[in-house]
Amino acid sequence: MSESSTPIVVEQSFDASKPAVWKAITEREQMVQWFFDNIPEFRAEPGFETQFDIDAGRRIFRHLWKITEVIPEQKIVYDWRYEGFPGSGKVTFELFEENDGSKLRVTNEGIESFPKDVPEFTRESCEDGWTYLLQDNLKHYLDG
Predict the structure, then answer these.
(1) Residue 3 has pLDDT above 70, yes or no
(2) Which family does it belong to (predicted)?
(3) What are the structural domains, with CATH classification, of the chain?
């Protein structure tokens, strides 16, 4: 497996319970507080689809999400694409009990299928994005 096809894995531990973290990653009202603030609708159920735009400064990316698997309070899997760009990613959120709290692992697969000449699709950009979202935004949100 080449470096470019190795999945990106980012983990973060929380003092919050699994049910609390699950709600933060699956309830739209909470997701907009730490993830993307313009998610129009979200349901943690297989087959659910949504789309929304993210302004990355130099260009706007329309995110296309489709939920493919849900195990309540354990795992949710997205098919993650971008309108107007070839490629398809798979993002898996897995939740584990840990000590008195919980741990969230996000695995991002398929980044090598996106255009190599788009800076926002580089491995480094994706790693930085997930690290920021989990270790800064979500942790701050759950810590209150």
Answers:
(1) no
(2) Belongs to the AHA1 family.
(3) 3-143 (3.30.530.20)
